[in-house]
Structures are given as structure tokens and as C-alpha cells.
Amino acid sequence: GAKEGGRNSYRFYQADMTRRAQERLTQERSLRRALEEGEFEVWYQPKLELADGRLCGAEALLRWRDPARGLVSPAEFIPLAERTGLIVPIGELVLDQVCRQARQWADRGLLAGRIAVNVAALQIERSDYAATLRQALEKHGLPATALEVEVTESLIMESPNHARQVLCDIQTLGVTTAVDDFGTGYSSLAYLKVLPINHLKIDRAFVADLPHNANDVAIARAIIALGHSLGFHITAEGIETQEQLEFLRGAGCDQGQGYLFGRPMPAADFTAWMQQRRA
Ligand code: C2E
Ligand code: MG
Ligand code: MG
Ligand code: MG
């Protein structure tokens, strides 16, 4: 009867919960193994100055080369890494790899601009991130002008005072700061105006339908105007077409990244990409 069905569905529910808990545990274990076995790689995507097309830096994007699954996208494992705290050691690994790579590119006179590193909320909460940055720069004999840090609106809004302090410490080092995926979160303009921020990055959700979607046109123009009047530089993400590029350049957007210029690529490929552009 109904009672019996209820009991059964409860049992199913329990079985489902157990299965999901086990799945999570398995995933966490493989993430730990990935860290120990060196399965993480940093890929690089070029950033260009829109006015003249000059290469002005790159964004470091994490990839996991899982022997079983192949290349795994960060969207699939960053949330778990954040929940388990593994994002802290993973973030340090990314920073170390980026600094080592930046040193090599600087020595070969290849990359003049900054490499932007994505930072998760937990890294700012759990560790003295500015100190971590300073140590990484010192270890690799790198000037602070080699790096930029990208944080999200939600990271800022979770604890605005702490975030402001950390961003301030980061800027004091000489590393610049950017707000990533701008417009998709819920940051308050009151905080934005007092935060030590150098760049706003327009999320690619607003770029995808430019210049045909009138709302996205309005949003992109508004972010550029607001950002500029608050003294920020504006970067657009996800530029895939010439039309998008022309619209954004015309609207006064400063920098951009996207498949139109170059996809994220392994360090060796990015080296070749830079050498080829130069020739
Ligand atoms: P994000 O920081 O907003 O990075 C931009 C994402 O857009 C990247 O996805 C990039 O590959 C993608 N992208 C760039 N240009 C285009 C384009 O023209 N078209 C399309 N469709 N996509 C484009 P990816 O590499 O999969 O990274 C996803 C997210 O994972 C990142 O978003 C960032 O939030 C996070 N992430 C990546 N690396 C790290 C890391 O080292 N630490 C932390 N905490 N998060 C990271
Ligand atoms: Mg980013
Ligand atoms: Mg972004
Ligand atoms: Mg984004």
C-alpha cells in the first residue's frame, strides 16, 4: 500500500545518498592522487590589447590529465577541490608552475605582459594569499609585474572587508587585481568603488550574442562606462567572432581574450604561438 511505497522510496533515497557519498569520496581520492602524481597542467590563453592587437598577457587555466578520463575541464573538478580544501595546495601548485614558466618566457624575452591566475575564495580565507604570492615571486626571482590575480564577485561579497585587505596587500606587492566573470555575480557598487581593483572582466555570457542582442549591447556598454569611470581597465572574455571584436573595440573595451585570438594551450604550444606571431 501507500505505507509500503513510502518505506521503499525512503530506502531508495538512502541507497542514493550512500551511492553519492561514495562517488564523492572516490572523486576526492582521485583528486588527491592527481596532486601527488603531478596530473595537473597549466594551460595559457593569450590576452590582447584591442586597440592595436598587441599581446598583453595571458590567463593561466588549469587542466587535469586524468589517466582514466583524459583531459578534464576545471569546471568539473574545481567545485570539488573547493569543497574538500584541496584547492589550496592545487592553487599553490598552479602559482609555482606559472612563476616558473613566466621566468622562462621573461628570460627569452617572449612575454612582456602579466599572467593572470584564478584564485578561489578558500585560498583567500584559509591562507595568507599575499604572502604565498610574495614567496612564489621570490622563489623564481620574478618581478611582481609578471602577475595578475583574478577573483570573483562572490569571493569579494562573502567577506568584503577581508577581501579588500587581501586585494590591498596584493596590490602593495605590485601584482594587479581583476574581478572575473563580472556581471554574473551579485557584487554591490558600494564595495566596488572602494576595492583595490585594476581590471573588470566582462563575462562571456554578455559577449556571446554581441552585437545582435540589444540587451547585451546595453550591458556591455554599461559595464565599460561604469568601469572606466571608476578607474578600471576592462577586459572582455570569450571573443569568438570578428563582429564581437569590432563592437567591443568600438565601445572602448581595453583588452580581450577568446578563441578568435587563441584557445587555451599547453605552455609549449603558447611558446610556439608567441614565436610565430613575432616572426
Ligand atoms: P574563467 O576564469 O572565467 O576562464 C575563462 C574560461 O573561458 C576558460 O574556461 C576558457 O577556456 C574559456 N574561454 C576562453 N575564451 C573562450 C571563447 O572564446 N569561447 C568559449 N566558449 N570559451 C572561452 P576553462 O579553462 O574551462 O576554465 C573554466 C573556469 O575554471 C575558469 O573560468 C575559472 O573560473 C576556473 N579555473 C580555471 N583554472 C583555475 C585555477 O587555476 N584556479 C581556480 N580557482 N579556478 C580555475
Ligand atoms: Mg579567470
Ligand atoms: Mg572569466
Ligand atoms: Mg567566465
From TrEMBL:
Domain EAL: 24-278
Chief location category: membrane
Alphabetical keyword list: Membrane, Transmembrane, Transmembrane helix
Cellular compartments annotated: Membrane
Source organism superkingdom: Bacteria
Protein name, entry field: PAS domain S-box-containing protein/diguanylate cyclase (GGDEF)-like protein
Portion of the full sequence shown: 848 to 1126 of 1126
